[in-house]
Amino acid sequence: MTHPTTHLYCGHILTARRQGTDSPTLDLIMNGGILVDQHGSIVSVGLASDLRSQAGTVTDFGSHWILPGFCDTHLHFPQLDMISSPGEELLGWLERYTFPTESAFEDTTLAANTAERLVTELYANGTTAAVMFSSNHVGATHALFAESDRRGLRAVIGKSSKDRNAPASMLSDPVKDGEESQELIQRWHGRDGRLFYAVTPRYAPCTSDAMLATHGNLVARYGDLYIQTHLAENVAEIAWVKTLFKGAPDYLSVYESFGLIGPRTILAHCIHLSDSEIQRIAEAKAIVAHCPTSNMFLGSGTLPKNRLKAAGAKITLASDIGAGTSLSQWRTMMAAYQLQRLAGRPFDGASLFWMASGAGYAALGWNGGQLTSGSDADFQVINPDRHRLLGHRLHSSATAEEAVFAMMAHNDDRTVERVYVRGREVYRTM
Q1: How many CB atoms lie within 10 A of CB 410?
Q2: How far is CA 104 from CA 58, 143, 170, in A?
Q3: How far apart are CA 176 and CA 270, in angstroms?
Q4: Domain spans of the chain?
């Protein structure tokens, strides 16, 4: 029976899904269809021939592929134009490149222009949801929220907070920082069920007890804020934390002591962790944002994948631009695979694809990231023939796993033709 308010999108459908604690699996439906209702929810997924009779309207993408939108769980908005600045490990890289670049975001015109370009680049790479550090400027953070709102992006955004060990122009008094955060929370947090605020201590060395206490008080007051920060990215960073927080038994405990570790906490990197820290992250249901291209570029280290998985920790995938070298989750998946392959513990294709898509959505409590009935219709349409090698390789792929690896090797922003959020087109290639 035809339903005039439903729309059918047809193509080759590839998605990852996970039930409970089971390992992720891949679903591939050649000549498939996604039936979407007027509210932007997926009604059903199956063979297009079986669903056409239920659709009021149809968009047939032919041999194109329909994939879930990606979720990037850690990136730095002000660092778009300094991706892969060379020649340093983490601490030197921050001093030489990052802090000077972010200081310029006091200029709200620069911030607004960069926000527009960033959202375009995210969509061009099939990313429909992102967790983002802004600069320390409230105006720049408003600009990023406003552009995300205008363009339909799902986002968690926070003003980067620091009150020590950074240039004076980037530091904020903890009281003022709390007031600015409240202003941003009241204006943006929860907007349209798509935009959310994260209290954002840059990382422990840049934040005093007073600043961390301000953030902990905000989390306790509002109850549903996200928290984002960095953890155990670099050996020198960890040694520095020990000198700054002498009473803390380890790095994670610095954040724990201020009530900043829980199921809405996104912890970037998590490389050099003790067994105790891994267990506590898993027990708190905190989210690990794995940033493999950044970890390789800065020489930071390799994610302790097997130990995190054994503890039951939630692992998601993140670009971490600008130390990360690409906004493409395909490039990020490949880097994650290669790092773990070198360590003798490689990810399989289903796990990588899940980490780039549904894992982030699920960890953040959002309904999307997979193409299944009841999920929000956040998806991307890929034309593999826009990349000659990819087009030929997919024609010879015998399994969904092979298709994922072919896309990891060859896919890029050239192939993304359209992107939808809640069934609404938000990007189309020119």
Answers
A1: 20
A2: 47, 14, 10
A3: 30
A4: 3-69+370-428, 70-327
CA distance 103 to 85: 16
CB 8 within 8 A of CB 33: yes
Measured in degrees and rounded to the nearest 5, phi and psi for residue 93 equal -65, -40
Q: What is the dihedral of CA 69, 74, 75, 76, to 10 degrees?
A: 140
- Beta bridge partner(s), residue 315: 288
The pLDDT value recorded for residue 100 is 83
Residues in the chain: 430
Tokens matching residue 192: 């349209």
Average pLDDT, the chain: 95
Residue partners of 361: CB distance under 8 A and separation at least 6: 71, 129, 367, 368, 369, 370, 378
Residue 2 has pLDDT above 70, yes or no: no
Query: Which residues sit opposite 427 in a β-bridge?
Result: 419
Contact 129, 69 (CB under 8 A): yes
Domain 3-69+370-428 has CATH 3.90.76.10: no
- Smallest Cα–Cα separation from 354: which of 41, 43, 19? 19
- Percent of the chain topping pLDDT 90: 87
DSSP element (H, E) containing 383: none
Comparing C-alpha atoms, which of 132, 104, 37, 189 is closest to residue 322?
132
pLDDT tens for each residue of 77-95: 999 988 877 867 777 877 8
Q: Over pLDDT 70: what percentage of the chain?
A: 99
What does residue 370 show for φ and ψ, rounded to 5 degrees?
-150, 150
For 237, how many CA atoms within 13 A lie in the half-sphere containing its CB? 26
State which CATH number among 3.20.20.140, 3.40.630.30, 3.30.720.120, 3.30.750.24 fits the domain covering 70-327.
3.20.20.140
Phi then psi for 377, rounded to 5 degrees?
Answer: -85, 70
User: Is the CB of residue 381 less than 8 Å from the CB of residue 66?
Assistant: yes
Number of Cβ within a 10 Å radius of residue 424: 12
Show the tokens assigned to 184: 């941003």
Summarize pLDDT for 253-296 with one digit per residue, the tens.
Answer: 999 999 999 999 999 999 999 999 999 999 999 999 999 999 99
| Phi, psi for 26 (deg, rounded to 5) | -105, 140
In whole angstroms, give the CA distance from residue 309 to residue 397.
29
Whole-angstrom Cα Rg for the chain: 21
8 A C-beta contact, residue 294 and residue 336: no
Measured at the alpha carbon of residue 259, what is the angle toward residues 258 and 263, in degrees to the nearest 5? 145
